[in-house]
Design brief:
Order of helices and strands: HHEHEHEEHEHHEHHHEE
Number of helices: 10
Distance between the termini: 28 Å
Largest sheet: 8 strands, mixed
Helix content: 25-40%
Shape: globular
Strand content: 15-25%
CATH topology: Rossmann fold
CATH class: Alpha Beta
CATH superfamily: Vaccinia Virus protein VP39
Low-confidence stretches: none
Number of domains: 1
Strand order of the largest sheet: 3-2-1-4-5-8-6-7
Radius of gyration: 18 Å
Number of strands: 8
Mean pLDDT: 90
């Protein structure tokens, strides 16, 4: 969906400042997350939603535009403090809870949204997590789950907190064992081919020395190696939309793999 002036104003208004170890100063990185949540919001209209691993909370605020209620949970007290300070809304609450042992009653939610979270959790927690979500969901409940596609993501970024990046095959095999229906989607397809020179430069700079380069020169280098990452917001939004995949092979060259699951 095109990015309207009204939505631009909304997204600018909820853009978080640096907090709790998170930074969204880069337009591309911020809009990539916002587009994932915008996709999820379109799926959960009028539903009772659990946002599992809400972080700073701006994504939960996007979900609250369409959902009946949003219960956003995280284990990080600092992130939750930021979320409560900046994203108050009548149908949105932020709670400290563990996604694997949430304490909510059975069948409390119609949908669970978990975006860019499971790569931060040990692989041996996945079975418990799937079991907990199955318990929490009402009949015909939905799960919207995203995580980096390990082979592609490994070429463009190294994130210290990622301890459980998954291949497409491993991700969807896990989900198909737990849920009746699993529909594959993707975001940022073919990004390595478009911005290879930029990512090669970043990947080699393991010490972050590029940040010592004066900002004007750094912007010039980015404009030469990755101009598409620094386009106006409507163009970035178009690049960052979530798309359905007819087959898992379509997801193989995407940065982010997304699954829409149903009990």
């Amino acid at each position: 969906m095109p990015l309207s002036p009204l939505k631009i104003d909304f997204l600018r208004s909820i853009r978080p400042r640096d907090a709790a170890g998170h930074s969204y100063r880069d337009d591309f990185a911020y809009l990539a997350y916002a587009a994932l949540y915008d996709y999820a919001a379109a799926q959960v209209e009028n539903l009772r939603v659990l946002d599992a691993g809400c972080g700073l909370g701006f994504g939960s605020r996007i979900l609250a535009q369409t959902a009946c209620t949003v219960t956003a949970i995280d284990v990080d007290k600092t992130a939750l403090r930021h979320a409560r300070q900046h994203y108050q809304h009548p149908n949105l609450q932020f709670l400290q809870a563990d996604a694997c042992r949430s304490g909510f009653a059975d069948r409390t939610f119609d949908a669970i949204v978990c975006l860019e979270v499971i790569e931060h959790l040990p692989a041996d927690m996945m079975t418990a997590l799937m079991r907990e979500w199955t318990r929490l969901l009402a009949p015909q409940g939905l799960i919207i789950l995203s995580t980096p596609n390990q082979p592609v993501y490994d070429r463009i970024s190294r994130t210290p907190g990622h301890i459980n990046e998954m291949t497409v095959d491993a991700f969807f095999t896990m989900l198909k064992q737990a849920f009746r229906e699993v529909a594959p989607h993707y975001q940022r397809k073919g990004e390595w081919d478009k911005f290879a020179a930029y990512y090669q430069m970043v990947h080699r700079d393991r010490l972050g020395l590029r940040h010592l380069i004066p900002a004007p020169l750094r912007r010039f280098l980015k404009s030469k190696t990755a101009s598409g990452r620094h386009a106006p917001w409507p163009e970035l939004w178009e690049q960052l939309q979530v798309h359905p995949a007819a087959a898992l092979s379509e997801v193989e060259d995407a940065v982010v793999q997304i699954a829409l699951c149903q009990l």
